[in-house]
Amino acid sequence: MHKNGFVEGAAIAYIAIVITKLMGAVYNIPFYSIIGDKGGIIYSYAYSIYGLFLDISTSGIPIAISIVISEYNSLGKFRSKEKAYRLGLRVVLGVSLAAFLFLQVFSRQIGGYFLKDMTEGVSVDEIAFAVRAVSYCLLIVPFLSMKRGYLQGHKFLAPPSQSQVIEQLVRILFVLGGSYIAVRVMHSDVTIGVGVALIGAAVGAVAAQMYLLRAHYTNRGQFPIRGGTERRADPTGKILRDIFSHCATLVLVSITMSVYNLVDLKMLLLGLHKLSYDDEVAQLVSSIASTWIPKICMIISALSIGLTSSIAPFIAENYAKGKWKSVNLKINQAMGTVLAVSVPIGIGMIIFAEPVYRLFYGESLYGGGILQLAIVVNVLGSMTTVISMAMQSMNRGKSACIFTIIGVIINTALDLPLIYLFDAMGIPAYLGASAASIVGQLVTMLLLLASLKRSIDFSYRPMVSVILRTAPAALLMSVVVLVFKRLWPVTQGRGILLMVQFAAYGLAGALVYVPMTYRSKVLSDVFGKRTVAKVCRKLGLRKE
Questions:
Q1: How far apart are CA 498 and CA 487, in angstroms?
Q2: What is the DSSP letter of 352?
Q3: To 10 degrees, what angle do helices 141-153 and 78-105 make?
Q4: What is the pLDDT of residues 94-117, one digit of tens each?
Q5: Contact 411, 439 (CB under 8 A)
Q6: How many CA atoms lie within 13 A of 532 on its CB side?
Q7: Is 127 exposed, middle or buried (0-12, 13-18, 19+ CB in 10 A)?
Q8: Is the pLDDT confidence value at 310 over 90?
Q9: 50-88 as b/e: b if 16+ CB within 10 A
Q10: How far apart are CA 159 and CA 223, in angstroms?
């Protein structure tokens, strides 16, 4: 293994996450065919709850460990670094056990929270079974996140990224094989198939953990545990304070978002029920919006996930050493990357929203419209995620947490009013929840940007410059793709021809967008001149 720089680390993380999320998105095509709409609803509700408790167990501690280890390493405090990791493992063990027991005991109450007075569609018992099944993953997955945080804190970013691909591959094989055998071979109820599929997260985590343990052991000489600037580790209390000072806000932000997702799901169910939508339709729409659409949108949000996993230790180290210019550069570089990559991908997905959804899940009256607004939410959310992580890495997590909560409150407050307003205006009512999410994300992002300006005199000029130089390329790309779409209309099927068309449309857009952003120096400013020059040499192109 070798340590990775910021741009290299971000690229590795992004490529791995894109591969992982594409695998996850593509496998949903056969998986959804196996479990059907009913299974999709049960899976959606159980996974939403699992996401909340997984965030409680893993969202803060692993990233906090990454930040603390990076800080301790930069100061030569190797004994304290190792002690921090051991303490983090103990904390995660306690939280994971508590979360597991809670889901086992209160699974029926959770099912009742979602369905309340709905008498048609899926039942409380079916949701409770799925919740109990997925709760076992909480005994395994959090420890995988801890090992990733440990390696990332040492700036070894490739193995954690590679482990994500391994985890996803093993999980997919188990999910598809297990659910197919349960539903199609053994002819069990679809609820059993969903339960088997949910266990797949634990199986994938075991495979990835074994890979990381081996990588760590075979390269153990690169992880100093003694020497440095200290003879003995810091006191337990001090290390715990360092960990919790970073993870408290991380946990609160992540939990806030997960709680919001659950509340948003409930508000959508409630609003559609009050507007006399059939129970089956309300459950289907809510599962599409909360689980299946986000799986497609991970193609966009994967970039911000990759950036946050690589940006945190670098900003923490530069901030600890008072390198303000480097902090400013890293944040601008991260946001510029989101703008330069996520925006054109998002535009393409908005143009082809209906056939994109059809490719993954088949014909739907609701999927295309929800996907279009969800893409806007995800682009804004990607920016918000990067800025929030940067602030938390600079010990300004309290502000990030407050702004996130403000955005969530606004979002939640607007859910039902916009659902009813859209219905009164003749617009599909379920789109009101997506519109509320856009407003909430926009408010949070603007508050975060304003806080960055006040706290470290952050300069927006590089980001604004990227926007101004990217906009013409994105506009021309859209025109070219729309013309191409007009000349070669999208097929009505969901087979190989549709995928070939998407590849052709994407290539046409890239042939316009990439050269324009290259000539306008956007690629050099975002990814670095050395990185762009290296890619150009490999492609046989001239240097800038």
A1: 15
A2: T
A3: 160
A4: 989 999 999 999 999 988 888 876
A5: yes
A6: 18
A7: buried
A8: no
A9: bbbbbbbbbbbbbbbbbbbbbbbbebebbbbbbbbbebb
A10: 14
- pLDDT tens for residues 432-489? 999 999 999 899 989 988 888 887 777 778 888 888 999 999 999 999 999 999 999 9
CB contact burial 422-455 (16+ within 10 A = b; e otherwise): bbeeeeebbbbbbbbbbbbbbbbbebbbebbeee
Long-range contacts of 505-510, Cβ-Cβ distance < 8 Å, separation of 24 or more: 505/348, 505/352, 505/481, 506/348, 508/480, 508/481, 508/484, 509/344, 509/348, 509/477, 509/478, 509/480, 509/481
Instruction: Give the separation between CA 493 and CA 513, rounded to whole angstroms.
Output: 28
CB distance 45 to 116 below 8 Å? no
User: Residue 167 and residue 211: Cα distance in Å, rounded?
Assistant: 9
- Measured CA angle at 239 (ends 238, 242), to 5 deg: 90
Residue 524: how many CB atoms within 10 A of its CB? 16
The amino acid present at 228, given as its one-letter code, is G
- Give me the pLDDT at residue 414, please: 93
- Note the pTM of the prediction, 2 decimals: 0.72
pLDDT at 311: 64
Length of the chain: 544
Residue 31, token pair as written in the block: 């998986």
Q: What's the rounded Cα separation, in Å, for the pair 528 and 523?
A: 7
CA–CA distance, 431 with 353 (Å, rounded to integer): 14
DSSP conformational letter for 137:
G
Q: What is the predicted pLDDT for the residue at 543?
A: 47
309: CB partners within 8 A, 6+ apart: 13, 63, 66, 148, 152, 157, 160, 161
Amino acid 78: pLDDT: 85
Residues 62/145, Cβ–Cβ less than 8 Å: yes
The answer to whether 390 touches 456, Cβ cutoff 8 Å, is no
Q: Which residue has the higher pLDDT, 508 or 401?
A: 508
> What pLDDT shows up at residue 544?
43
With 50 as the cut, is the pLDDT of residue 527 above it? yes
Q: Which amino acid is at 242?
A: D
